[in-house]
UniProtKB/TrEMBL annotation:
Superkingdom classification of source: Eukaryota
Name of the molecule in the record: J domain-containing protein
InterPro entries: J_dom_sf (IPR036869)
Composition skew (Acidic residues), residue ranges: 156-165, 172-187
Length: 281
């Protein structure tokens, strides 16, 4: 295939990607309007859109890797790489909107489920209050304590008081073990981590099987100090939270994580990000 044919095909693929991204943006906007109007979303709707966005990202990453693998990059190659990176930035924005949409959906459904659960105890307590109690259930509560009952209770209290307390020798050994464990688990030097790992506050050496869970837990923890939903008077919260979402969305996607680890290139929309402004508990 000639370079001109490859370039034509690549432009056609980018045009198709633009159309798919625009269609996805339209669907996201419609669902945002539906949620704002109090409507419930169809099951798996957000999941399907996230999958579609990830498919687009996967294709863009493959195209970028194909061009970067060339022995000699031409000016046209660099132009196409710039266009592909611009499309990746659009996909990242869509991923952030989908994450926000999922958050809104969770809030809407969570509130409804909470109201339904709250209604259950009231109905149960009402049925219990109208039911006639059985005599055998009430009798033990009304019967006065006998001398045997009092003696048994006293014996239990004496037995608890006689339990052996830890000696100073045992305490010293425990302290030594705790100190040894703390020395083994020394705080890693986070300044050596790539930027996205520093933002999401997850060690890049985390095992693959535990990595996504670690990112999800860190996202919830970071939300307390950076999510503008919880900080309405913090003007900088939106910028910090956008960076956190960007890091999370990139690193939990295996293809994008692999691409980032390989290039270790800061995403365009995070260039110049002040890491010290991020509030990490």
């Amino acid at each position: 295939m000639s370079h001109g044919t490859f370039l034509t095909d690549l432009r056609a693929l980018i045009a198709a990607d633009v159309a798919a991204s625009n269609a996805l943006q339209t669907r996201i906007a419609q669902l945002e309007d539906d949620l704002a109007a109090g409507k419930s979303l169809p099951d798996k709707k957000v999941d399907l859109m996230e999958r579609s966005n990830k498919d687009i990202v996967r294709d863009l990453v493959a195209r970028l890797e194909s061009i970067e693998g060339s022995a000699n990059l031409t000016a046209t190659d660099r132009e196409m790489m710039q266009a592909l990176n611009a499309r990746l930035a659009v996909c990242d924005l869509l991923a952030m909107r989908l994450a926000k949409l999922r958050d809104l959906e969770f809030q809407a459904r969570g509130t409804q489920e909470f109201l339904e659960v709250e209604a259950l105890p009231a109905s149960r307590s009402k049925s219990k209050s109208t039911a006639k109690p059985h005599e055998e259930d009430v009798e033990p509560l009304l019967r006065p304590a006998t001398p045997e009952d009092r003696n048994a209770k006293q014996a239990e209290e004496d037995e608890g008081a006689d339990e052996e307390l830890p000696t100073s020798h045992d305490t010293a050994e425990d302290d030594e073990e705790v100190q040894a464990e703390s020395d083994e688990e020394a705080e890693p030097d986070k300044s050596t981590w790539p930027l996205l790992y520093q933002i999401i506050d997850v060690d890049p050496r985390t095992e693959d099987g535990d990595f996504k869970q670690a990112c999800d837990l860190s996202l919830k923890r970071l939300a307390r100090k950076n999510n503008p939903k919880f900080l309405p008077n913090d003007a900088d919260a939106s910028r910090r939270w956008a960076a956190v979402i960007k890091a999370h969305e990139t690193l939990i996607d295996p293809e994008r994580k692999r691409f980032y680890d390989m290039r270790n290139k800061t995403p365009v929309d995070l260039e110049g990000f002040d890491l010290s402004s991020l509030r990490i508990e």
